[in-house]
Backbone:
């Protein structure tokens, strides 16, 4: 059984969906939920599901990225994860961290990559007049939001959409996509999933 650490910064709705899926005959189990934000809503949700939690506050490491990332590694490695899932983890990581978990780290991003890396993806999709939006799960490499694409789910942009209404529709798709991709990844399958 693969051990999965999940990194969050916020409400953790993707984390909950991943953890809910990792039961029964699933090839993986959650071993840790870690947040860089101490009052992230996802921490309480993880505790309620009986998953070990940890907090490493980036604010304690003002400007010291190396110190922050070493603290992350020190908090994560005792839990011996085989796979790391970034699920709304809102810190950019350097090669110090990424190389340590090379080939074992997944991220979900709220756009149809390679479009709209970085922030404000929904506002940018609306401004561009896109007919389709969606989300991507990809392997994490040193270049932000540019690793190999493992899965993608599309949703329509509807007339009158705001960044908020579009984000909510995309989030529903994230909740379908991420568990499906993690399941395949834990089984060693590396093709691209389209939902
Ligand atoms: C999700 O929409 C995720 O795709 C996005 O943050 C949200 C987290 O929601 N991630 C990024 O923007 C990464 N740059 P959640 O905490 O409810 O899962």
Residues:
């Amino acid at each position: 059984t693969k051990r999965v650490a999940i990194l969050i910064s916020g409400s953790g709705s993707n984390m909950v969906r991943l953890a809910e899926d990792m039961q029964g005959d699933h090839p993986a189990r959650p071993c840790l939920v870690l947040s860089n934000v101490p009052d992230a809503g996802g921490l309480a949700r993880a505790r309620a599901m009986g998953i070990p939690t940890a907090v490493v506050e980036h604010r304690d490491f003002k400007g010291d990225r190396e110190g922050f990332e070493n603290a992350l590694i020190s908090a994560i490695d005792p839990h011996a994860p085989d796979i790391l899932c970034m699920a709304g983890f809102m810190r950019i990581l350097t090669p110090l961290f990424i190389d340590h978990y090379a080939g074992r780290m997944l991220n979900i991003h709220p756009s149809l990559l390679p479009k709209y890396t970085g922030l404000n993806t929904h506002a940018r999709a609306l401004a561009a007049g896109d007919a389709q939006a969606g989300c991507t799960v990809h392997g994490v490499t040193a270049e932000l939001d540019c690793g190999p694409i493992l899965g993608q789910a599309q949703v329509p942009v509807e007339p009158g959409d705001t960044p908020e209404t579009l984000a909510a529709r995309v989030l529903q798709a994230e909740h379908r996509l991420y568990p499906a991709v993690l399941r395949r990844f834990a089984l060693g399958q590396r093709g691209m999933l389209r939902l």
User: Anything to note?
Assistant: The mean pLDDT is 97. The pocket of glycinamide ribonucleotide is lined by residues 8, 10-14, 42, 87-88, 90, 108-110, 135, 171, 174 (CB under 6 Å). The first helix runs from residue 13 to 21.
